[in-house]
Amino acid sequence: MNISDELKYRKLEQAQPGEFEQLQEKAKGCPWRQSYHIQASAGLLNDPNGFTFYQGEYHLFYQWFPLGTFHGMKYWYHMKSSDLVHWEDVGVGIEPGDPQDSHGAYSGSGIVKDDKLYLMYTGNTRDEQGERHPFQNLAVMDSTGKIKKRSRPVIKAVPKGYTEHYRDPKIWFSGGKYFCVIGAQRANETGCAVLYSSSDLEAWDFEGEIATSLGDFGYMWECPDYFEMDQQGVLLFSPQGISPEGDHYRNIYQSGYIVGKPLDTERRSFVHGSFQELDRGFDFYAQQTTAAPDGRRILVAWMGLPDTNYPTDSNGWANCLTLPREITLREGKMIQQPVRELQMLRKQEVKFESTLQDEVNTFEGFSGTSYELICEFSGANAERFGIEFRTGETEKTVLLYDRVEKEVILDRSESGQPVATEYGTERRCSLDADNIKFQLFVDSSSVEIFVNDGEEVFTSRIFPSMNSTGIRFFAQGGSAACKATVWSI
Ligand code: FRU
């Protein structure tokens, strides 16, 4: 789709009378509206931004273009919650359109200082020739919730050796100093992350590039994030331009992390292990983490991908955020679990128990489009066993464990309306285990699957008909004991 700059960089007030309300109306009538995920009332949502705990509440913003389902003039839209489950719609957080963010308030992060919430973000600007000039800006929210943008960028120039793809500052505080990582592209068009430091969040010094052993790893790293946990350093980012390798890197763009010794901020060297994908599903990108007051590290991501059309586009809205996940490290690997607060969503509970012997067994006691399902398989000698969900006359989404290949497989080829099929309709991930636990969060148009308590996660949009509400359990080539509990949400 070729959209003129005039259409792309329109602000809300430049809409035709009633245009935005019409989009909202259209979105409202869409059967794929989510029931418990953060989504925009209309337009396009992408990255989570500014995720911070401030004055007793989690503040979470998202990238938002209100006037279409393409990537246009980006706003920060503001949500807040005291429990990570029930979110209050606060409204627009950062409005773009000033000289420092003339073409969009792009992604960034938050940190609390002097009882205020500091938000640092990339101001996307373009000059008359259409060339990009990214600025790193500040906006400050006070205790009344008022957000004031600073009119002058805190980082104005892109240092020599890097292109105009320079964005998404993520701030942290360590050893009496503030640091931020920014996603960058070197002049030779390879991706990396750079480091800045500051004593006050206002004046920033360019420290240099974070030296990793990844070499040429894609052409751009978006949305970097850094934190420390269990005396280890974790650098997360979303690299673009990584080619598929076996079951890996199957989506248009990737998201993952490297774990190592804490970052040496003096030398900017990061000694780390190999790059690992965060999620094995179809739709996951641009994650951001924050620290909860009790010390947990919580991650939220965009349940979608850039440069991808979704079936809801024609209904005036696109995308949603993932559920918040608690992350921990186990032997250098990130374990992701749905935050325990999500149990508050559980309503009616129904159980299922059976030993499946070469059969497909319909879960008679439950059907729906919005639920949590925990299913444990044990004692299997079957070649394959698993779950078919959102099943209807002609539709099903299949999640299975292949004991022969030792792989978890998610198949959305028959899920309903297709998405990005040029990138395949199946995702696979190796896992060597005797017992398999699948925890699924199903919403009207998505599924988040936590395998064996978060050892692997598959996050995906699916677009079935609203009549596809069934659940079936199956075993092929032998038997498997299956014990499941489902809660409607
Ligand atoms: C990632 C991204 C960021 C950018 C934002 C713009 O999805 O491209 O790099 O800041 O989205 O919306």
TrEMBL record:
UniProt keyword terms in alphabetical order: Carbohydrate metabolism, Cytoplasm, Glycosidase, Hydrolase
Domain annotation Glycosyl hydrolase family 32 N-terminal: ranges: 37-338
Spans traversing the lipid bilayer: none
First-tier enzyme category under EC: hydrolase
Record localization: Cytoplasm
Catalytic activity field: Hydrolysis of terminal non-reducing beta-D-fructofuranoside residues in beta-D-fructofuranosides
EC number(s) recorded for this UniProt protein: 3.2.1.26
Keyword flag RNA-binding: no
Pfam families referenced in this protein's UniProt entry, alphabetically: Glyco_hydro_32C, Glyco_hydro_32N
InterPro entries xref list: ConA-like_dom_sf (IPR013320), GH32_Enzymes (IPR051214), Glyco_hydro_32 (IPR001362), Glyco_hydro_32_C (IPR013189), Glyco_hydro_32_N (IPR013148), Glyco_hydro_beta-prop_sf (IPR023296), Suc6P_hydrolase (IPR006232)
Record CDD domains: GH32_ScrB-like
Gene Ontology MF annotations: hydrolase activity
Signal peptide: none
Positions of the Glycosyl hydrolase family 32 C-terminal domain: 341-488
Pathway: Glycan biosynthesis; sucrose metabolism
Stated family: Belongs to the glycosyl hydrolase 32 family.
PANTHER family, alphabetized: BETA-FRUCTOSIDASE
Role played: Enables the bacterium to metabolize sucrose as a sole carbon source.
Protein name from the UniProt record: Sucrose-6-phosphate hydrolase
